[in-house]
């Protein structure tokens, strides 16, 4: 080989190497799918801080809850590889972990302090003792109410109200002339929307999805009691069209001052007391209600968590992001910039040992609500499943979405409660027979 | 004149395109048929073997099947009725010499260029929202209770949204037909003393026959697969689950590929029956 051609080859090689190194330095972009809830939107605002620290660029795909679930589920089952990090919850994580679809998070750094994650959250996001997703925030459900309207009505909210009291209070606060509804609750179809809410309402009336032999229980009187109570309550004191309202719709109504009470995720507390709320100064909190004589309350347990789908090309970078977003440092970063009330709640024990945080009005109620939730014994009567507002089996998402659609049709007055329950019973048994449970 | 050689050259040159198009169509079709005979549950470990005709029987015997077929047909017929009737009226109006005709025509056609998801979102949030929507404000202004459109009048709402999108298409086709009408014929009948209704019924409408069948044929093919508008507005709740939405639920929400594929095969059969039926009518009309 002549000198000239050697030089040429060397130059070419250098260019190629440099080119690929250049590409490497800039190819570290991770794509994250997440839900359009306030805390995640806030997290996106801090993306630049993460990119500055690590050099890893982040692309966000932000979707509405129901849509997010379909997108990430399709992506993971088809091995689509669209995302490096997915925002999933306590329902998906153990099932996907068992299928080896997620990267185990068992080698997180010491300073991350995985033991600091609340045991309820860690348990719900693990399969066989291995953590598969890190909680960004954790939540239960609780009553949020307008203290000014309660006072005007001459009522006082107990720490642990019953449904009967909630109805009484809703009647007292309902003021259609001033566009104030006594109560706002979820009715939107979708297993994680209205389906979740009516399931915990059922639990608090002594109802359950299945008996121990996996027979559907919608033909039992407890379900009729729960659904009738809910429909009457909402028809009498709920907003127009509540059958299409989910978390975000109710949040917006509450913040506009159009709800006397709202029973929903504890994580909403920072938004109803935040800058976007017109009623921020007069919001009180109480435990989720139960029917008189029933021990279980309508409180659920959920974590929105970050997980890495197996097969991603950016596993190390994705882990770095998860460690950053769910760390104590991130909590402190938000606290320093936006105040302690706005940090993601319910995930870390140390947060509830921070004196500044305990001064936040809803901090203790959130922790109490989370601690009151027991996913292994969610109902009065024993059940063969784990999960409070869901049943942790792969068939649940599809089946519960259809069931909640029947319920939503009842909320809209398109069918009676009895018809909705009969259809729910048929749908559930159809699916369980096909899946070989019974 | 084509020689033998030029014909075979043409065949060779066209072959790649034909093969590509056939593959484009046949591969998904064959896969759908194949999956419809399998127990394919991604959440339960994937393909679990032969299912025989189980998926087919389960799909039609499920409590959701017939209501979904019925919903599909109601939406198709509803939209067709509205778009054809209003399409004719608007086409006749646009045919009149009016000031600013060009602008009006563009405005009428505009909805056709809006993506279905976008228009559904706009209708849902800006017009039909029972608290903050325009319609609810109008109702309250007149002292009436606002209607919860998407839950209380779900099917009419969907039909309204879809009709809004398809009306421009119908109008455009029908306007072209109206304009091709021989004006002398109309003038002659007018001079003979025929009233407007009779002129419309005996001259204009028969002339529009062909255009109307084309509108019906093309719209039906698209409307049978309607999905985005339902996905965005009601998510299949409140009796708005069409056959295509049911298939989506089976495949994506229930993660049952086999069952959903069987539904897909039924949908193909249904669409073909309707298409053949319509083609015959069109064929007669186009003679």
TrEMBL record, chain A:
<comment type="similarity">
    <text>Belongs to the bacterial solute-binding protein 1 family.</text>
</comment>
<dbReference type="Pfam" id="PF01547">
    <property type="entry name" value="SBP_bac_1"/>
</dbReference>
<protein>
    <submittedName>
        <fullName>Sugar ABC transporter substrate-binding protein</fullName>
    </submittedName>
</protein>
<dbReference type="GO" id="GO:0042597">
    <property type="term" value="C:periplasmic space"/>
</dbReference>
<dbReference type="InterPro" id="IPR006059">
    <property type="entry name" value="SBP"/>
</dbReference>
<feature type="signal peptide">
    <location>
        <begin position="1"/>
        <end position="23"/>
    </location>
</feature>
<dbReference type="InterPro" id="IPR050490">
    <property type="entry name" value="Bact_solute-bd_prot1"/>
</dbReference>
<keyword id="KW-0732">Signal</keyword>
Automatic annotation (TrEMBL), chain B:
<feature type="domain" description="ABC transmembrane type-1">
    <location>
        <begin position="69"/>
        <end position="278"/>
    </location>
</feature>
<dbReference type="InterPro" id="IPR035906">
    <property type="entry name" value="MetI-like_sf"/>
</dbReference>
<feature type="transmembrane region" description="Helical">
    <location>
        <begin position="158"/>
        <end position="178"/>
    </location>
</feature>
<dbReference type="GO" id="GO:0005886">
    <property type="term" value="C:plasma membrane"/>
</dbReference>
<feature type="transmembrane region" description="Helical">
    <location>
        <begin position="199"/>
        <end position="218"/>
    </location>
</feature>
<dbReference type="InterPro" id="IPR000515">
    <property type="entry name" value="MetI-like"/>
</dbReference>
<feature type="transmembrane region" description="Helical">
    <location>
        <begin position="259"/>
        <end position="282"/>
    </location>
</feature>
<protein>
    <submittedName>
        <fullName>Sugar ABC transporter permease</fullName>
    </submittedName>
</protein>
<feature type="transmembrane region" description="Helical">
    <location>
        <begin position="106"/>
        <end position="123"/>
    </location>
</feature>
<keyword id="KW-1003">Cell membrane</keyword>
<feature type="transmembrane region" description="Helical">
    <location>
        <begin position="73"/>
        <end position="94"/>
    </location>
</feature>
<feature type="transmembrane region" description="Helical">
    <location>
        <begin position="12"/>
        <end position="37"/>
    </location>
</feature>
<keyword id="KW-0813">Transport</keyword>
<dbReference type="Pfam" id="PF00528">
    <property type="entry name" value="BPD_transp_1"/>
</dbReference>
<dbReference type="InterPro" id="IPR051393">
    <property type="entry name" value="ABC_transporter_permease"/>
</dbReference>
<comment type="similarity">
    <text>Belongs to the binding-protein-dependent transport system permease family.</text>
</comment>
<dbReference type="GO" id="GO:0055085">
    <property type="term" value="P:transmembrane transport"/>
</dbReference>
<keyword id="KW-1133">Transmembrane helix</keyword>
<keyword id="KW-0472">Membrane</keyword>
<keyword id="KW-0812">Transmembrane</keyword>
<feature type="transmembrane region" description="Helical">
    <location>
        <begin position="224"/>
        <end position="247"/>
    </location>
</feature>
